[in-house]
Amino acid sequence: MDEPFVGEIMLFAFSSFVPQGWLKCDGTVYNWQPYQALFALIGNTYGGNAQQQTFAVPDLTGAEPDPHTMYCIAYQGIWPPRPY
């Protein structure tokens, strides 16, 4: 698998294992420090509290096309290019 873009959301064909460099898209709130690149992209769009230095990932629970799949968001990878 090629290196993903930070913030890329991908559907994985399993639901019990989250690959390294990814977080499950289940609405969980995280401390932003271990995930600074992802936080820089999504901020508090999906929840969390900037004063408490937390952010949430999107909650795509139930949006999966099959119960044995899950959506994950990349927190490691290539920084997305920005048009200038």
From TrEMBL:
Highest taxon in the source lineage: Bacteria
SUPFAM superfamilies per record: Receptor-binding domain of short tail fibre protein gp12
Pfam families hit by this protein: Collar
InterPro entries reported for this sequence: Phage_tail_collar_dom, Phage_tail_collar_dom_sf
Phage tail collar domain ranges (all copies): 7-63
Xref: Gene3D superfamilies: Phage tail collar domain (3.90.1340.10)
Name of this protein: Tail fiber protein
Organism (species): Heliomicrobium gestii (Heliobacterium gestii)
